[in-house]
Amino acid sequence: MKVWEATLSAKGQVTIPKEMREALDLRAGDQLIYSVVDGEVILTPKNIDFKDLAGLLGDPPNGPATLEEIDEAVVSAAGANVLDTDADDKSDVAA
Q1: Where along the chain do its domains lie?
Q2: Which of 3, 17, 54, 83 is 20 to 30 A from 42, alpha carbon to alpha carbon?
């Protein structure tokens, strides 16, 4: 597990280190999701391919899902993936 360090600016901003941006394939304009789990901040890229969302919401009883419902499902799925550490190597999980 690679660990990076950053400093919070007076405006509350943090620059993501270049090596981390490259490792996560982040580009200008990408959206990120911040989660706080047991007092630790987890940063997750929200750069999901639409093909990965196929069937995520199932077959809604009231017709197609709205963009708001899709956004909510993406955020929920991203958070669930972050919290699902069962398959992770225990050395990769923060203490």
Answers
A1: 18-86
A2: 54
